[in-house]
DNA sequence: GGTTGCATGTAAAACGTTACATGATTTT
DNA sequence: AAAATCATGTAACGTTTTACATGCAACC
């Protein structure tokens, strides 16, 4: 079976600890979503595919009062995750409507460029703030594993940098 | 008709000067592709849709020895481009396999985090170099319009920053 | 005469989001 | 009793990529 990066989001999540589909989605939404999103429409079919491929296995959770299937990595799944981690990466892309507007801003009024820069700055300020809230909620970096902690530091630095750059540029645009 | 951001890539390009589909693709590939890509499979059908909507018009190019349809904005198309430039933006997203690997690196060997950071740094160094080549090829900023010039400066600063950050972090990871 | 580049276009597949359907349990 | 949350799942839709088909023109 051919795995795509979204499959690895699931393998990676289950590599942290066993979870059900709902929890994967919730976890993605407050972590990887900033650089790799996943929807229910991907997660549930993918859980089935990965099970069929023998990389994960699900067990009906008897402890829970709810209907709940907890998935965990098989030995083959853990090996596959390790292989992927060591392999070179293919995907790195960005889609940014504000950059598009900055690029085409000469077709707008004289303020168009500045407006696009300010809008972009505001977006990144908000995202940095959101990441800082996640950081505080995690009770500082002590209880966080090094990978997520480094990624979070990256996200904050990255968003701060862009917001600063765009604001500075917007000021010079006047 | 409902327009999506890709439609605006085409409107924006034709707002710079009239072009054929092939030229739009070539131009996208050395400019907006870094933050908004477009393939032939999108461009040609979209040129038809925008023509039907009366936002652009195509004319068989008599000057050329080849079969070639040159498209330009209609008045309605230019108005639509202006409206879009002034409107708030919806899309800002990123997919980055190296960040995913950094996030999940605790499931790998002790070098996994550093490897992901170094791979990411290398990618951004390359992209910065590519943008600098585009910058030189444009014969410095004088012949560039302010929008594309600002976007290019952004791309270089952005890629340099990330490469630096990741390299610094990779060193501390040891 | 062969290769590269210009130019238009489409079909199929892959990828992803949105919205909905369903129903149980927990909280207010 | 109502609302929120947990939990699984799918269908429809829209978007994007990939690969191919076609043919002429320019260059070597």
Overall helicity of chain A = 55-70%
Largest interface: A-B, 64 and 64 residues
Query: Measured on Cα atoms, how large is the radius of gyration of chain A?
Result: 20 Å
What are the secondary-structure elements of chain A, in order, as H or E?
HHHEEHEHHH
Query: Major β-sheet of chain A, in short?
Result: 2 strands, antiparallel
The separation of the N and C termini of chain A measures 55 Å
Would you count the extended β strands of chain A for me? 3
| Average of per-residue pLDDT values of chain A | 94
Strand order of the largest sheet of chain A: 1-2
Oligomer: homodimer
Morphology of chain A: elongated
Number of helices of chain A: 7
- Uncertain residue ranges of chain A: none
Search tags:
homodimer; mainly alpha; 7 helices; elongated; two-stranded antiparallel ribbon; 174 residues; DNA-binding
């Amino acid at each position: 079976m051919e795995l795509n990066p979204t499959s690895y989001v699931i393998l990676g999540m289950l590599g942290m600890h066993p979870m059900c589909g709902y929890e994967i989605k919730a976890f993605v939404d407050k972590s990887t979503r900033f650089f790799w999103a996943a929807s229910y429409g991907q997660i549930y079919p993918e859980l089935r595919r990965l099970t069929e491929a023998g990389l994960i296995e699900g067990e009906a959770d008897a402890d829970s009062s709810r209907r709940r299937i907890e998935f965990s990595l098989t030995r083959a799944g853990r090996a596959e995750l390790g292989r992927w981690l060591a392999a070179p990466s293919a995907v790195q892309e960005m889609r940014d409507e504000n950059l598009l507007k900055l690029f085409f801003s000469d077709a707008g009024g004289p303020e168009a460029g500045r407006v696009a820069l300010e809008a972009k700055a505001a977006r990144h300020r908000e995202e940095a703030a959101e990441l800082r809230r996640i950081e505080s909620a995690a009770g500082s970096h002590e209880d966080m594993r090094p990978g997520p902690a480094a990624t979070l530091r990256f996200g904050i630095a990255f968003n701060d940098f862009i917001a600063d750059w765009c604001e500075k540029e917007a000021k010079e645009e006047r």
